[in-house]
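User: quick one, fold this
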Amino acid sequence: MSVNPELSIIVPNYNNGQYIKDCIESILSQSFDDYEIIIADDRSDDNSREIINEYVDKYPDRIKKIFNEYNLGVSRNRHNAILSSTGRYITTLDSDDYYYSPKKLAAEIRLIEEHKKKYNSNIIAY
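Assistant:
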């Protein structure tokens, strides 16, 4: 991963310990790999933080964590994570979801770049 990655993937989390491994693994399995993952935990009281710490320990250059001291709610939690991102582009993935296709991010980045080149304007891709 570069110092300023092409993409920041924002993962807000609250008590999704049962799903967050699948979420993170689906990101790590992407064919596009110029990204950072920012997981913002909103004061979970399940096993989420332990799982997040395991992944941060395993991928310290790829995954950043934010552990809120108190529950902010999903909007403020996501917003704070976005503010800490360093990527050129931003996408979000809720911690109870996952990317089905390992080519999803590559396809979105390709679409954005093609649109920008052809029309010299920005686009939202999903």
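User: anything notable?
Assistant: The chain is about 35% helix and 20% strand.
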